Amino acid sequence: MYIVDYIKEVASAVKSLATGMKLTGYYFTHPKEIITQEYPDNRATLKMADRFKGEVIMPHDENNEHACTGCTSCELACPNGSIKVITKFEVNAEGKKKKAVDQHIYHLDMCTMCNLCIEACPTDAIKMANTFEHSVPDRNMLIKRLNNNGSKIREGVE
Amino acid sequence: MYHINELLNSDNTLKPSFVAMKESDDYTINIGPQHPATHGVLHLVITLNGETIKKVDPDLGFIHRSIEKMCESLSYRQYIYVTSRMDYLSSHINNHACALLVEKALQVEVPERAQYIRVIMDELTRIASHLLWWGAMAMDMGAFTPYFYAFRERELLTEIMEDTCGARLTMNYMVPGGVMHDPHETFVHRVSKEFLPLLKSKLHEYEELVTGNIIFQNRVNGVGLLTYEDAISYGCSGPTARASGVHCDIRKLYPYDVYNKVQFEEVIETAGDSMARYMVRMNEIKQSISIIEQLINNIPEGDFQAKTKAVLKLPKGEFYQRVETARGELGVFVVSEGGTTPYRIKFRSPGFSNLSCLDHITKGSKIGDLVASMGTLDLVIPDIDR
After folding, report:
1. Per-residue model confidence as pLDDT tens digits over A33-82
2. Predicted pLDDT of residue A40
3. N or C: which end of chain A has fewer CB within 10 A?
4. Domain range for residue B15?
């Protein structure tokens, strides 16, 4: 009886291995079911998700105007200090002094893409872009100024 | 003034005592900190007698980032994102625990829509975590192909996460009062029409490739035995303890959000060996599928986020919240002094307690069995070190 059990065990073992090999053989003979994409070759067709959190940007319109009031909400909301807002006082047409953004400094090298600054912004001045190819030769190039040269705040944004 | 030697030599002071970690003729080998089978920077000092294990000393701290101390300087909105970095495979569930704690302390009513989305996200994360564990564990035991089969299904899951949350691994999607965004318009379709049918049609491949495989079965059957009593006394939780017959599913014992509205079974095995731990996780994937199926087409309309104050201040006191992550029970303990940041925060992470039983379950077994036991414990090292 021992011999019979032994042979049964060997048979079931061989069967279990054959079942696995059958599956492997199926995918070997059906290369269309393989879904691997090779990244640099598919750059032309690669589409990132709309909400993909790649970096923080400040959209400017055609008049080089943005919606940032320099309230530093994003700076306070950032958990690791990636944002530094340097403000200045501007004198408007009525002769009143008003706080405005001078430089909106963004450290991409420290950012963890947690989206808290975008949630905190009261005027939707900043948003997440879905770019992802951020490699640069020098780390200092990752420190960005988000507001353009000579840009100013859009009319009506408080 | 006394000299240190005088103090040590006097009879009234405590004497320093030294306990040798190994005897002089013991043979020790090191696994890690950089070893593929430990899935991270875990260092195991193994004392051997021939090929038999006498003792396993886990040496921790290689990826310690002092997350608990970091959280003391972060506000109650900010401290959630750090917890994604603890157990990065169940980051949604970690964030869920922190968000629940703040809601419990502030007594915020979470909209039902947000609760549904949260639970669906939790279960999707659990499936993703178990799929990755399945592939990685098979790779530990020398089968390389399952890793790619697991990642094929997980890829669709990460794409769904990317559409809705904007990130693939560290999402930071749960916020106090709900979720950060409304789900993407294709979310329901992709989960119910694409992902779930795909996963269900592929589950039999996992059984054929690994579960029924004779080599795999011989390596896990009866290996790494953890009894019911030991599972409790080592503080094990999650699938590790459930494989020993312990009823410890937090989703059943202390239901949060809509877990009390869905029907699912707590998967229990009684054998306590590596095969039982394997089967618990494989059956949990099926239970998670059934939970998602009950919820995905019934997401109610409404807000996805309750209105909360811009600056959250927790009342003075102590707060505790626990959830069931893919690895076990995660507890968050916060001591608040009434300010905007926690006074002290403590995470009870499941991985640390599950690792503590490794020495016990591998004592006396062969060194090859250590890898099988460690693989089925499902260790995530950043979760252990924090």
Report:
1. 776 778 888 888 888 888 888 888 888 888 888 888 888 888 888 888 88
2. 84
3. N
4. 4-57
Residue of A nearest to B212 (CA): A16
> Residues B221, B204: one domain?
yes
Domain assignment present for A93: yes
Number of domains composing chain A = 2
Specify whether A21 is located in the same domain as A67.
no
The answer on A137 and A69 residing in a single domain is yes
Closest CB to A128: pick one of B155, B164, B166. Answer: B166
Please report whether residue A13 resides in a domain.
Answer: yes
Taking only the tens place, the pLDDT of each residue in B104-143 is: 888 888 888 888 999 999 999 999 999 999 988 888 888 8
How close B18 gets to chain A, by Cα (Å)?
42
Q: Is residue A130 part of a domain?
A: yes
Judgement on whether residues B171 and B192 belong to the same structural domain of the protein: yes
pLDDT digits (tens, 9 = 90+) for B257-285: 888 888 888 888 888 888 899 999 989 99
Helix B145-165 with B112-140: angle, nearest 10 deg: 160
Complex ipTM tops 0.85: no
Chain B residues close to A22, C-beta within 8 Å? 208
CATH of the domain at A66: 3.30.70.3270
Contact yes or no for A114 and B81 at CB 8 A = yes
pLDDT at position B14 is 66
